[in-house]
Amino acid sequence: MTDIYTKEELELVRKYSCESLYYFGKEVLGYQDAEPDPHVDLCRFVESKIKRKMVIGARGIYKSSFGTVARAMQILLANPNARVLVVQNTRENAEKTVKEIKDHFENNEKVRQVFDHLMPEKRGGWSTKGLTLKRSRVFKEPSVMAAGCETDCTSLHFDYIIGDDVVSAKRDDMKEGGLIILRPEEVAKAIGWYSITMEGLQVNTGDTERDTEVLFIVNRWGVEDFAAHVKNNDKFSRNNPDGFHILEMPAIKPDGSLLWPKGLSHEKLATIHKRQGDFMYYTQYLCKPYNPSDRGFEEEHFTYWAGTYPPGYEDDNQLYKVFAVMDMADVKKAASCYTGMVVFFVDEDNHIWVAEAIEDKLDTNGKLDLIDAMITKYNLPKIYIEENLHKELLKYVVDEHKKATGLTYKLELIQHKNASKEARIMRLQPHHQAHALHVKPSHTRLIQEMRDFPFTSRRDVLDALAYSMPIVRKPPKRFEELQENPIMNSFMLKDIKAELRKHRPSVQYGSGLFSNQTSEYDPDKKFKDDYNNSVKNCMVFRKPAQRKNVV
C-alpha cells in the first residue's frame, strides 16, 4: 500500500474526518461533486447529536452516500466499538450498501491508510452481510450489519440504526402513465418493523448520551408512505420531545430557488419531468406525495372560520340549520377501523359551516358517548348515519341508551344510492370551489384528507362530510353572487325547458361531466319525472341515463 498522507497529515485527516462528515466524504471517500451548499447542511444534520432524525430528500443529492455509507464509516473511525445496523426494504439491498462500505475498506487507498490501525489482520469473516473492525470490546454484533425489514434480529442490539429507503417501489408497482402505487403490505412491513423491532434493537442505558441513534433516509412514494407515517405520528414537538427531527431537501426549495444548481439544474429537472412523468418528478424530486394540481380540493379554495357557532347564530339561531352525520367504522374491515363524525351548520345561502370534524377509534360505548356529547352541545334533534350500517342491533342499543340517559333524538338513515365513496366526496367540490365550505384550522384531519384526496384511502371524516350533500341538496351561492344579486331570480319551468333544447352543454351538479343536448332533443317521461322531482326538491336535474356523456 502506497502512503498518500504523511504521518502529520494522517493525524489531521483522521481528526477532521471525525469532526466533519462533509470533509470525510469529499476528501477521503472521493465525493468530488459535493458542494458546501447544500451538502454541508445535509452532513451537519446527519452527524448531529440528535437521537432521532429523518432526511426526506430528492434523488441524486448524495443523501445515501453521505447519510449511510460515509456516516457508518465515520462512526467507526470515531468509535471502533460502535455497532451500526444498515436497514433497507430488503436484505439484498442492504447488503449492496454494506458491500460498498467493504469495497472502500479494501480498495480505497485513502480509506485503507486512514483506517489502517483498525483493520483486522484476517478478514475471513467479512462479507456483504456484515464486517468487523478491530475493537477493544467483545460483541456478538458485527461493526456493520445489513438487514431488511423482514430480517430476524432477535437479541441483537445496535448503537446506531440507519434506515435507508426502508420502502421502495418494485417493477410490479409501476402503473400506466408512470404512476407508482406501492403495495400496502410493503408500507405496512416497514411501519411494523419501525414500530416493534426497532425499539427492541436499541441500546437503552439510562444515559441519553449513550442511547441508540436512529436515522432514516427516505424518498416520498405517496400520501400514506413511510415518511408520512413518521411525520404524522412521531414527529418531534413540544408534546413529543423524543420524536423525529425532520430535514426536507426538495430539488426546488419552497422559495422557488434550486437546492443544488450544479447537480439538479432547471434544465435537468425539466428533462427528468418529461422522461419520468408527473408522479416520479413530484415524489422523488420535489418530495411531494403527488402533483398538487391533481388534488380534488385545491388549496386556494379553502375557506376558514373560528368559534363555536357561525356568524350571527347566537343572535338569531333561525339563520342556520344544524346537522350531524356519523360514518361508523366497519368492524369487519381492519382498514375501516375509524369512525368519522361531523357537525355542521347550513345557512340560507347553502353555505356549510363545519363545527366539528372528529375521527377516532371507538367501540359501541364510545360512539354512544360521542353522540351524547354532540346532542348536548348543539341541541341536535337527530343524527344521520349510513343506512347499510344501521342494523337492528344498533337501533336497539341506541334506543336503550336513550332511555337510560333521558336524551331525545332520532337516528335518520342516509342512502348512498350505490354511489362510490369517491363520487360522494366529489359532490363537495362545488361548495369548496365557491368558497361555501367553511372549515376550522383546528380540523387538521379533515383538511389533510381534503388536501390528499383522491390519493389517500383514509378519508373517514371527509366521507362523513360528503353525506351532507343529500341533506343540503341545493348548490351554494358564490360570494360574488351574494354581493351582486342577494335575491335569487325566479325562473319559469317553460324557460328552463326551452334552455335545455339549445345547442349548449348541461351540467349535472357535482359530477363534472357534460353532455350536448340539441334542439331536436325532447325529454322523455322518465326525464320529466326526474326533472319535476328535482325542481320540487330544489335540486339540479339529473340527465337521462340513455344519453351518452362526453367528457
Could you walk me through the main structural features you see in this protein, from its secondary elements to its overall organization?
Helix content is 37%, strand content 15%. α1 packs across α2 (21-28) and α4 (63-78) crosses α5 (91-107). The protein has helices spanning 7-19, 21-28, 36-46, 63-78, 91-107, 109-114, 184-201, 226-233, 266-285, 364-378, 392-405, 421-426, 429-433, 444-452, 460-466, 469-472, 479-484, 493-500, 525-536; strands spanning 52-57, 84-88, 130-131, 144-148, 160-164, 213-218, 245-249, 303-304, 320-327, 339-347, 352-360, 382-386, 410-414, 437-439, 504-507, 514-517. It folds into 3 domains: 7-248, Rossmann fold (3-Layer(aba) Sandwich); 299-480, Nucleotidyltransferase, domain 5 (2-Layer Sandwich); 490-551, no CATH class. The chain is an alpha/beta fold and 551 residues long. The protein has a 7-stranded mixed sheet, with helices on both faces. It has a 7-stranded mixed sheet with strand order 8-14-11-10-9-12-13. Mean pLDDT is 81; it is low at 171-179, 479-497, 499-528 and 533-551. 33% of the residues are buried.
